[in-house]
């Protein structure tokens, strides 16, 4: 009888192995041992201060790998520099997809760069996931099913400011300094749409190019407009220059600063903390420099991560919090994928995040997506800089941009 039992057991084992293998599905960039994740960052060029985001994400994935990886697979994070140049971004996207054969491109940074690559990514049906930009165009599942943003979109941010201004400063005159690209245009549109029939409150606006060596002439012109509210929608370098020039002019407007340029380390300190006092912006993540979170478990876990996996990173730089949260969300998507690591399933799981939150998100802020809603976060809270740290005030406000705004 034993001669019959052994083959039977062997046959059952073979069937089980076959079933197990059949349940595993892979596209390029995934295997039993590895998940290749591509990334494009401006490690050089005019927006190089954002490069720390990529370094934080690499460090986070190193921590995940040290802890056993994702469902037993290690993340191979391949990150390239595009110097904030759209042509270079296209070149790097092609390299990641066609040469490195990554499963997806995660957190490519910048509105201009992602605008340049999104048609290619969608034609190739490769996920362009959690784009590091608040551009509403990156959350359009009908026309760009392989592209998804993550952070609150710029139009929502503009509308939140407009709501606050209409409530507290309805008779003010507004001057706007904005980046001459899709990001700046998106932000400006949100403010104007939010002001509605009071958009005439905007008495002056000046744009600048990210590559401009100085923005002094624009700030002087806006100062001369007689406005008592000033908006700066610019990358970190341009924002720091704007803050400093406003301060040097002795101009004391109510100052609103884009959420993407609120880093104490890379924007406010270079500008001069004395000039930054009183500036208002928005937040959806905890600020480790805020004493409110000194004993917060999430912030303490982040500090321990920085000490061990990114010791050279600046704990006062909000971009290092941002990169950590983005990497957490990416890990959540990959965990949800299980053994079905196809590009199609990556997008399916990214569009099926239900009340996901990082322990570094502000209380009350959640990530929710579905196949028709590619806006993961639509809530923010206002904050004011007190000269040393940001202080939150008011309630969490939900952005009002309809999904048609992305089209």
Per DSSP, what share of the residues sits in E-state strands of 2 or more residues? 15-25%
CATH topology of the largest domain: Rossmann fold
Unreliable spans are 1-8, 15-20, 403-407
Average pLDDT, all residues: 92
* Span between termini: 71 Å
Task: Please outline the helices and strands.
Layout: H1 2-23, E1 25-26, E2 34-41, H2 51-66, E3 74-81, H3 86-99, E4 104-106, H4 111-124, E5 128-131, E6 147-149, H5 154-168, E7 174-179, H6 182-195, E8 202-208, H7 216-223, E9 229-233, H8 236-248, E10 254-257, H9 264-271, H10 273-276, E11 280-283, H11 297-309, H12 318-337, E12 340-341, H13 343-350, E13 379-385, E14 390-398
Parallel strand pairs: 1-12, 2-3, 2-4, 4-5, 5-6, 7-8, 7-9, 9-10
Antiparallel strand pairs: 11-13, 13-14
Can you give keywords for this protein?
Rossmann fold; 407 residues; 4-stranded parallel beta sheet; alpha/beta; 5-stranded parallel beta sheet; disordered C terminus; 14 strands; 13 helices; disordered N terminus
Characterization of this structure:
This protein has about 400 residues and is of the alpha/beta class. It has two domains: about 210 residues, 3-Layer(aba) Sandwich (Rossmann fold); about 130 residues, Rossmann fold. It contains 13 helices and 14 strands. The strands form four sheets. A five-stranded parallel β-sheet has the order 3-2-4-5-6, with helices on both faces. Strand 4, helix 4 and strand 5 form a beta-alpha-beta unit. Helix 12 packs across helix 13. It is globular. The termini are far apart. The N terminus and C terminus are likely disordered.
